[in-house]
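To the team - adenosine-5'-diphosphate complex, inputs and output below.
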Amino acid sequence: MDNVETLDLKPIFSCLDFIESRLVEQELIGLITFELTSAGSIKEKYGTDFYQKLFKNICEFLLSLKGKIFRQEDLVLINDYRDDQIILLLISKPRYKKSLDIYNLKIAAIRIISEIKTNIIKESIEFEKIKNIIDNISYGYALIRYDKNKNIRSIIFDSFSEAYLRQKFDEISEKIISMVSHELRTPLTSIRGFAETILQEDLSKEEIMKFAHIIYNESNRLNNLVNAILDISRIEAAKVHFKRKKFDIKDIVENVLELVYPRIKSSDLSINREYSDDEEYIVFADEEKVEQILLNLIDNAIKYTPFGGEITIGISKQDSEILVSISDTGIGIPDKEKPHIFEKFFRTSISMSVAQGTGLGLVIVKYLVETLGGRIWFESQLSVGTTFYFTLPSDESR
Ligand code: ADP
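Output:
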C-alpha cells in the first residue's frame, strides 16, 4: 500500500454482482481495476471536448488490448456507470494455481500500464497534456479467493500508483544487480588474468592458443549471461512483447535441431523423434519465443548428457493443446534440488562440474511458456535422465 490517492472502489462494489457471477462462472479469481481520477479538473483545464476524446481514446485502447496481451475472456471493461471513470477489470484464471498471486496481478497491471502509456502517448492528441493525465490514472486490484464450493472466502483490495511502480522497478533492478555482480565477476576475473599472462610472460605459441581459447570461452559465457540477464529484466519490467499466430511447432523443433546439430554430433548423441512427419501440430503462440523455449531445453539436454547418450523429442496432441517433451539420458537432477530448478541462478550441484551455465534459462523458459498460456514441468532421476514437458494452446480460445 502506498499513501497516494486511493482508488475509489465504490463502483466496483456496485457491480460486484456482475463480477461475481462472471468469476464463479469461469472459475476466475482476481481482478485489476484502473480508474481515471481527477476527471473534473481535466475537463476544467482542457475542456470537455478534449476530455471526451481522451476518454474515448483510452476506452478504445483498453478494448484493443483484448487478445493482445491477455486472452479475450480475461478482460472486462466497465465504463458506463459514471462518465468520468474507467474501470478495467483484469480477471485472471487460477490456471497456475501456485503462481497466481498478487505479484502476478501487479505485473499484469504494470504491463497494461506501460502499453497504455506507449500507445496513448503515441496515438493521441498532445503529448504534454496526455502525460499529465496519465499521471492521474491510479491502479488497483482486488484479489478474490474462493473455496472449493466457489463461495467467496476473502477479497483483498490494494491500490498503487506511478510512484509505487517506480519504486518496484528500482527494487527489482537492485536485486538483479546484487545477484549478477558475482556471476559477472567470475568470467571477467579469468579473462583479465589470462590476458595479463599472455601479455606479460614469454609463452609458447601453444600456451598462448590455450589461454586465448579460455578467454574466448569465458567471453562467450559472459555474453550468454548478459543476454539472459537482459531477458530477465525485460520480463520483470513486463516489457516482453508477444506476436501470436498459428503455426506447426514441428517445424520449429526441426529448425532448432538443425541449429544444434554440430553439438549433437560432437557429443555423439542420437536423436529420436516421437512425432509424425505427416501430422500437423498447430500451436497458437509466438514463433520466436517458442524457438527460444525449445533451444533452451534442447541445449540443456545436450549439455547435461554424457557422450554417446540419447535425446528424444516428443510432440503430441492433447484436447486443446500440444504437448512437447524433451528427454535425455543425462546426469539427472537430485530429488532434494528439484524444488529449486525454476529459481533464478539455481544450478544443481552435479551440473556445475559438467557444463557451464547461468541458471537463468529455465526461469525465462517458464515465463515464456506460461505467458503463452501453457504449463511446464519435469521428471528426473539421478544418473538416468531428465524429461522436460511443456504445453501450448492449439487455438485462440485460451
Ligand atoms: P543453465 O544455463 O545453468 O543450464 P538453466 O536455467 O537452463 O541454466 O538450468 C538450470 C539448472 O537446471 C542447470 O544449471 C542444471 O543444474 C539443471 N538442469 C537443467 N536442465 C537439465 C537437464 N536436462 N539435466 C540435468 N540438469 C538440468
